[in-house]
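Question (not urgent): is this output format expected?
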Amino acid sequence: MATEGIEAVYLTTHNWGRAAKFFQSLGYRLDFETDHASGQLRNGDGPYLFIAEVPESEQPQTRIVLKVPDADAFPAGSGVEVLAPFEDTHYGTRETTVRDPDGREWTLQAPAAR
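Got this back:
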């Protein structure tokens, strides 16, 4: 299965408001904000930025999300180490997690099943 580039950058933060303002000062515009300290920002036609607040006990993380056209087209036996199967998300997509040869984890995101 070929990816179609970077879909999003997913960040966690200890302060949603401060993080959103930082990226807005860099030219990102707020697409939407949730009622649980998270939201999506965009800057042009590139990947979107999704930021979610986590407790102080968690280390802030960055995750790159790669776009795939169809979760069902992911070939079994492709040599890609799948850590979690594609699952529906609460925000209308399907996601899986894979690991590259150096141990990094990647999220693949496909449109929701029809």
